[in-house]
Amino acid sequence: MFHKNKTQETTENGTCNLPPFCDLCGVFLNIERVIENIKLRSQIPVLKRAYTDEQARNNELKEVLRAKDQNLRVAESEMDSLNFRNQQLTCRVAMLLQELEELKSGNKKYTMKIQDHSGNFHAIDEEFTKKIEENAALVSALNECKEKHENEVRKLNAIISKLRSDLSSSMANKRDLKSINSGADDYFPTSFNPGDIDVEKNILGETSFENVNQIEKGPKIDDDKQDSVGFAIQKALQDQLLVIEQHNNRLQHENAQLCNERKNLELKMKVGIVNYIPTEEMYAREREIALYYDEKLKSIATDVTRAKSVAEVYSNEIHNLKLRLDLEHKNKEFSSELYRTQRDQKRNLEEELKTTKESYETQISTMSEHIASLNDTIQNQKDQIDNLKYQFESVSG
């Protein structure tokens, strides 16, 4: 058809004289062109409407794409923030686990220290019980020593009073003998043999001198200081008791001898034989006996004062040990209370760690589920965007 039109135009332009058939063909061609133009003009508003609809749809797709891009950026930012928070949570969990391990190691060390302290307390208790037993034994020994001292002092006082009474009686007998001698010299001037009197004087002087030597040779009290005071005092007191008993026996024996001598003198006086004992020897003997027993009483008094001082020292030591034991008991109670608080704190920390761990695990699980759902939505939106892009490209092409 277009070829016919072109040939017609060439004929019209090239030649002016055409046949009438050609004119009819040209008319038909023009009519066809007019019809086609009318058809095309009738299609123009439809195409315009389709173009505007497509353009509006394209704009809508662009808006949807922009919204999807914005949602994608928001999801990516949320993903980054969730990753950051996840890293923080993992760091926090690691720190809490490290603190828990440190607390466990610290509690182990503290329990070891408590066990060491309990062992020390047990040793101190044993030592204190031993000290208490020793002090009780020393106190009982001191009480026994005091009782023995008091008994010995009473015995010595009785012996001294008895000796003094014997001495006074002997002095009275001497005075009687002196008066008898003076009377005998008056009444029996020729009945005495001077040699016999000298022999009797020598015999009685020797016996009295031997008695004085025996009294002077009595064992003395050991005043040396010893290290173990309680046992040393007890031993010394036992030795002193034996010595005093021996000396008492000797004095009783001497008293018996003196009584026998007195009886012999009385018998001799009855038969007319009078022996004279000088009073100076008796006074000297009395002074020696008194000095000996005074020294003995002084030594016993010094022993008693020494025992009292030792008892005071031990009582002070017991008081100090009691104070130390009270302090150790207070330290033990404080350490046990501290151990209980540390144990409760550990239990609370473990519970808190457990709860935080469970909460973190639940949060992480919910976050992972949320992230998975976001990934699914993002993937779906991306697929929709790809489909829209493809449709838009296909429409625009």
Structure description:
It is a single chain. By secondary structure, the protein is mainly α. The protein has a domain at 121-342. Helices cover 92% and strands 0% of the residues. The protein has 5 helices and no strands. The longest helix is centred in the first third of the chain and has 168 residues, at 20-187. The chain is rod-shaped and about 225 Å long. The two termini are 30 Å apart. The model is unreliable at 1-19, 183-201, 207-229 and 272-278 (pLDDT under 50).
Strand content: under 5%
Which oligomerization state do the chains in this entry correspond to? single chain
How do the helices and strands follow one another from N- to C-terminus? HHHHH
Mean pLDDT: 69
- Radius of gyration equals 71 Å
Number of helices: 5
| Low-confidence runs | 1-19, 183-201, 207-229, 272-278
Taken from the alpha-carbon principal axes, the silhouette is: rod-shaped
Number of strands: 0
Spatial separation of the terminal alpha carbons: 30 Å
* Largest pleated sheet: none
By secondary-structure content and strand pairing, the structural class works out as mainly alpha
Tell me roughly what share of residues is in helical segments.
over 70%
InterPro entries: PPP1R21, PPP1R21_C, PPP1R21_N
Keywords: Coiled coil
Domain Protein phosphatase 1 regulatory subunit 21 N-terminal: 32-128
Protein name: Protein phosphatase 1 regulatory subunit 21 N-terminal domain-containing protein
